[in-house]
Amino acid sequence: MSELLKISGLHASIDADGIPKEILRGVDLVVPPGEVHAIMGPNGCGKSTLSYVLAGREEYDVTAGSVSFMGQDLLAMEPEERAAAGLFLAFQAPVELPGVNNANFLRTAVNAVRRARGEPELDAVGFLKTVRAATKNLSMSDDMLKRNVNVGFSGGEKKRNEVLQMTMLQPKLAILDETDSGLDVDALRIVAEGVKNLRSPDFSALVITHHQRLLEYLGPDRIHVMVRGRIVRSGGPELAKQIDVEGYASFLTEAA
Amino acid sequence: MPAITETREQVEKLGQSSYKWGFETDIEMDVAPKGLNEDTIRLISARKEEPDWLLEWRLAAFRVWQTMTEPTWAKVTYPPIDYQDVHYYAAPRKKPGPKSLDEVDPELLRTYEKLGIPLHEQALLAGVEVPEGEEARLPVAVDAVFDSVSVATTFRKTLAEAGVIFCPISEAVRDHPDLVRKYLGSVVPAGDNFYAALNAAVFTDGSFVFIPKGVRCPMELSTYFRINARNTGQFERTLIVVEDGASVSYLEGCTAPMRDENQLHAAVVELVAMENASIKYSTVQNWYPGDENGLGGIYNFVTKRGACRGAKSKISWTQVETGSAITWKYPSCILQGEGSVGEFYSVAVTNNYQQADTGTKMIHIGKNTRSTIIAKTISAGHSDSTYRGLVRMLPKASNARNFTQCDSLLIGDRCGAHTVPYIENRNMSARIEHEATTSKISEDQMFYCRQRGLSQEDAVGLIVNGFCKDVLKELPMEFAVEAQKLLQISLEGSVG
Ligand SMILES: Nc1ncnc2c1ncn2[C@@H]1O[C@H](COP(=O)(O)OP(=O)(O)O)[C@@H](O)[C@H]1O
Ligand SMILES: [Mg+2]
């Protein structure tokens, strides 16, 4: 299988006060197994929308196109089936769950996914061992496991918590939506290490970012530039460097 | 059509098969004829071989009841109840119970299983005849109420050695008449309200607990109430008396099989706490709520009240209410003793067409009395839930304190949640704090959970349990686990 994820001619719109507003306007993209790809593009071009549509958010209407994930019709699957199949989304804005213990949430999620994959569930001890090791790698304090999911977390803590979940859920494809935004240099390095640790022939990542620095850590295989709901250019890591210097101006005209 | 009439046919069918009708027949008499009059009450009292004072007490209550009308202030609606169309007495069938779980209604077992009730307890609840010696392995003392008469009581010996009395109230009337006479109706008077008066007139069983001075009850006491016979009103009466410096934790739990008719339930619970005494009363209520179209289900009109008579006494109510078609219930504390403490922790869940009007009353009489109210209301489907609470500070309640927190969680947009706090303060030094919030399970939260692999049901379960955490942690361990599962089961089908 030469592609893990294949997006073809994807159009998606959202209901804006009763009028459908088209956001994705024919996205084509292929991510082979074991590769790290980046999506860059100006604010509002549809990067988060693409990640939501891939993860199965119901508010968006897919009006045309198809997505295959490991040979399956991704768009026909429920969000939790996509997660079980190995798709993970690190949210740009992680959601707070008041009263829900972070460790308990993580264990429920891990076991739900393991069940769906036909793997044995982790008992309390097994889970604790794995999660302790993972938090240590991410320089997170155990205290964060005792707190409620994302409640009162700083921006950096929220992002690290996303990476922790990713590590524990062992996805085939991780979509990271601006996970590097708002992180200081040290936090950025830790998050990047978290992703790098997962690198294997069985793991791919689609990294949405505005910053060259994260990509320097990760060494992406390909860069895609998105403008107004379309991928307008794809290329090697040099493309990210070009954007870092010149901005998106030259691509905007390309998209017109 | 009156609610009770709907099921006449079914009851008649039952009557032909396994029930013998009326007290006139000479063989076994299981069910009293329908209807309520002085003769019914005399029959009940005679069947239970009660002393005259109790019969008189019942009759007085009945006469008061006849002058009363059903309260209409609660935010619940239901077809009129024909009180003459109800059986007021049903003894357990004399025919032998099932010999093993294989003979028990699988639907009932499925409910138990979902709740994670251990097998040996399932057997007890389902009326399987437990072999000798088996019951000693139960983790808590269980006084199982099947219909109106208690049929199983365990751990009596350990309790007796500690001087604790825990028995069916009818037995207490026989064996400890002075105690019962002294306290019965002393917290909830016979004519207190329409349903309490009805209960006083016709109550058939319930539990009696007495913890003597200085004794900490050596185990948690538990009564599993289960409604078994069709169309039989349930009129339990529970009385718990805890003397100076003594304490008890009492668990009341209900798991009911599916039922397709409305059933009337009007229980009374009275608690008395003397000086430095403490009573923790926990309830998990899971009676049949009716089907997803609102058909059937239990009508639950309960009067629960505790009196903190002694200084520094404490009464704590914790309830998880997921069942019943209609819930009308306000566990209350009368804080008379100086420095006494009242607590009310409640989770009320309504789904489909359930209606709940529940809350508490904290009546501060003594100095330095304190009360805490934490009420969590969860509504889903077309259901409607109201928190109704009264905090009253009387003139002598100097420095009394109340803290109330009412939180509502809505699932979907066809349900309702209401908060009706009544506050009366007649003492300048008393302080009352009230906080209230209303929230919804957001699309963002659902999507976030599902992206992590959780099913919609698991996601709701997790969020709801998080919302209720402050209450659930007040429950004894064995109940907390059961309650968590119950919350999730009750909300099945509420999303998606
Ligand atoms: N729920 C919504 N309702 C209306 N417009 C939306 C909604 N979600 C996204 N959009 C619009 O779609 C466009 C793309 O948004 P987004 O995918 O978040 O962009 P990006 O992540 O690339 O910054 C923006 O113009 C945004 O305002
Ligand atoms: Mg975005």
From TrEMBL, chain A:
It comes from the Bacteria. Keywords: ATP-binding, Nucleotide-binding. SMART domains: AAA. The keyword Ribonucleoprotein does not apply. Signal peptide: none annotated. Residues 5-253 form the ABC transporter domain. Belongs to the ABC transporter superfamily. Ycf16 family. This is Fe-S cluster assembly ATPase SufC. The gene is sufC.
Automatic annotation (TrEMBL), chain B:
Residues 156-217 form the SUF system FeS cluster assembly SufBD N-terminal domain. It holds the Pfam family SUFBD_core. Transmembrane segments: none annotated. InterPro entries: Fe-S_cluster_assembly_SufBD (IPR055346), SUF_FeS_clus_asmbl_SufB (IPR010231), SUF_FeS_clus_asmbl_SufBD_core (IPR000825), SUF_FeS_clus_asmbl_SufBD_sf (IPR037284), SufBD_N (IPR045595). SUPFAM superfamilies: Stabilizer of iron transporter SufD (SSF101960). It comes from the Bacteria. Residues 225-467 form the SUF system FeS cluster assembly SufBD core domain. Belongs to the iron-sulfur cluster assembly SufBD family. This is Fe-S cluster assembly protein SufB. The gene is sufB.
